[in-house]
Amino acid sequence: MADNDENEDSLEKTSVVQSDTFKVRIAQAEEAPPCLVLLVGPANQVGRQWPIDKNDYILGRAVGANVQIDDKSMSKSHAKLVLSAGEVNIIDLESTNRTVVNNKILTPLQPHRLENNDQIKTGNVIFKFLEKGNIETVSVAQTFGRGQTDALTGINNRGALNAQAVELFNKSRILDAPLSILIFDIDFFKKINDQYGHAGGDLVLKELSRHIRETQIRGNDFFARYGGEEFCILFLGSPFKTVQEIAERIRKTVQEHVFDHNGTKIPITVSVGLSTIAKEDHSWNEIFERADKALYESKNSGRNKVSVLLRE
Fold first, then answer.
1. What is the pLDDT of residue 220?
2. Global confidence as pTM
3. Inter-axis angle of helices 189-215 and 240-256, nearest 10
4. What sections of 86-188 are H helices per DSSP?
5. What is residue 70's DSSP assignment?
6. Residue 53 pLDDT > 90, yes or no?
7. Is 218 helix (H, G, I), strand (E, B) or coil?
8. How far apart are alpha carbons 78 and 68 in whole angstroms?
9. Cβ atoms of 110 and 80 closer than 8 Å
10. Cα–Cα distance between 266 and 208 in angstroms, integer?
11. Those residues with Cβ within 8 angstroms of residue 152's Cβ, 6 or more apart along the chain or in another chain
């Protein structure tokens, strides 16, 4: 009997304490607006969220759609989300392949109120709706963010670059704004790994990424690691002359920066390639390919320099 009394006393003294991390997530969730999460669609966008914090949102494959998914099964303007008095309704815009919510085909142009965790099918693309204040909004965003981040350097990875570049190319066309691409890679990086080991190589990659991010990347610039020692920056709206100046600053600041590995200074330089959008370009890959060719021009003509290749 004494043992039971002791157990009851222990239980009475036991309390559950929420971790600070969990408390932060709860607070973030309470502030989160309703949102759509992509469940099925282009691989590099699965898990992405679109917060619904304005009155009207168009879903479709058109460049100007608020929720733009490049999938032929979606109509250019497939459906519309309407936010009113805290409720979100979806309206099919007479799409070719219909809008389906939880296996129910919607009547075109008739609003349908969305509820938490509803699944929305637009052609072959599937979204999930999360209501305002859903904690899953935070956890999904964190998971998607980790999937878009390079584990070693903490900057954007190649998948994030591919997704963002498409969006910026489309915005460039809509806004008639310049889009420029800067590519650089570390000169003789294999020799660095051979001489200082992979720990030395990793230190250089991390320190270079940190230094460039903190000293050269502005609020609207998109910085990513897209290969082993290869990096890319996207500039939307910046005059090409400004991008050229940034490229030269990057080349110079890397050359002058101290990369210290266990008390030994590792000399580092980078080769840089630049290009900018032309009216004849049909995709961001065309700009990227020119910047990549410019990069190899820098490497083949002595390294530690900036080269530019524009469309003829």
1. 86
2. 0.64
3. 120
4. 135-147, 158-175
5. -
6. no
7. coil
8. 10
9. no
10. 12
11. 202, 205, 206, 225
Measured CA to CA, the distance from residue 303 to residue 230 in angstroms comes to 14
Q: Look up residue 98 and give its two tokens.
A: 């219909």
Residues with active-site annotation: 229
Looking only at the bridges linking them, the beta strands covering 222-225 and 230-236 are: antiparallel
Percentage, residues of the chain above pLDDT 70: 84
Residue type, 224: A
DSSP 59: E
Q: Is there a contact between 192 and 186 (Cβ–Cβ < 8 Å)?
A: yes
Tell me the three state secondary structure of residue 270: strand
Find the mean pLDDT for residues 70-98: 94
The region that residue 176 occupies, defined by phi over 0 for left and psi between -120 and 50 for alpha, beta otherwise, is left
Q: Which residues contact 226 (CB under 8 A, 6 or more apart)?
A: 157, 158, 161, 232
Q: What is the pLDDT of residues 63-82, one digit of tens each?
A: 788 898 888 999 999 999 99
Closest CA to 128 of 101, 107, 99: 101
Q: Which residue, among 158, 291, 271, 124, has the nearest Cα to 311 in the 3D structure?
A: 291
Residue pLDDT, tens place only, 223-241 = 999 989 999 999 999 999 9
